Amino acid sequence: MTAIQECMSRFGIDLEVPAIRQVRWSHTPALVDRLGDREPARYGYRGPLGYQADQYASITRGGTKALFIPTKYGGVYDGSIRVFDGRVVPPGGCQGEATRRLDRTGAKLRKELGDDSVIPWKPLADIEAKIAGKVSADRRYQEAVGRWKRCMNRSGRPFDSPDAAEADPRWVASVSITEEEADRPVGRPEIETAVTDEKCRDEANLTAVSLALHTTYQKEEIKENATRLGLVRKLLLVQLRNSARMVP
After folding, report:
1. pLDDT score, position 115
2. Phi, psi at residue 26, to the nearest 5°?
3. Coil, helix or strand for 88?
4. Cα separation, 25 vs 169, whole angstroms
5. Model confidence, pTM
6. Do the Cβ atoms of 204 and 147 come closer than 8 Å?
């Protein structure tokens, strides 16, 4: 963010960048169907203040924070224009320049990975998505979801899946996707549903089954993708060293 901000300033653009802070709420509990870290009795499905932002940052490994670029400056950011206000835009724009500064001595690794995100997270996300698909198709997971559904039905709150319960339009619409618009207060129906949902997940042993399956499939994918994951690790270490020189 610092590198992008510095680059944009050379074109007379005072770009406001989002605050960067350490992620407190990891995506892992949600990945394995656990609700406890969200405190359903107080916050329903949305979790405490900062939870949703942490999920976004965690899923993308911090690589794509919600950075707002005014339309008139978009070409400077992404390099879709060659000149702005009489100044030559660097290849790939300020985003490309920031990536090159992070990747110094690591360009070959970047090329091998074929991942053009600022921070090389796409291979990790691809593997994680593949594993999630395997877990959801696994008979043991489906049986646990079946137990969860029966529990929810007995409680008078029928849903096809935990994802459907979390994504119910009655409460999803109350969560703002911009910093300019505040979230609406969490409602009683959401809290009551989330509390029941957590009890049913416990009764169905859903989280334990999900965690065990994710662990098993992750070990398989780590072994199969050892070379690719090794490249990601090497590039991240290069970026870590270079970033130390970039932050004031």
Report:
1. 84
2. -65, 160
3. strand
4. 24
5. 0.83
6. yes
